[in-house]
# Entry
Amino acid sequence: MRTNPMVKPQASSGWAVTLAVISCVCLTTAIRLFIAQTAAAVVGLAFAAAAVVLAGIAATIWVVKVRRSRAWITHAVQQWEHFSTVKSQLGVTTEITILDIHSLDPTGTWVTLRWDKFGYVQRAWMEAIPDEIWRGSVLLISPDPNQIQVHGPWPEVYCLMAADYHTYASSAAIPFVTDPKYRPRVQVNSSKAR
# Structure
């Protein structure tokens, strides 16, 4: 089963913490055995070796998770930069956030969405679009003037046509997009790609 790419991966892990704690217990036991009895040195060495191996495994898990998290942040910031570029090139657009996905069909899907500018939540039929959309996706669309009118009532069900969809980004990445410390990382990575 695939994980939702709109959600930032965790940098911490229960396994890494557990292995680090067990490693500390093994190391403490080894030190006590070395201090208490010189005859128990073989057992102490076994505990010390176990402590080193477990600490190495915990460190490896942590490094992998931190790398995945950093890669996700870099990709998410790049998505938002693309989102902003597309938005600046188009006329009338708005942002909607997918709150829930109810059912998938070959021709589209039923979703619950929030109109970000207005905070209005409603059900919608979303025609099949070329990108894979998950909960937490922010979509850039051109609202259909036949369905959405200024000072008019909201439609009971909004129909989002594929032609009105432009791009998407992750709502979980918004704090990273506004944080200036992630900007240089994206610029460095994009310059390496050239």
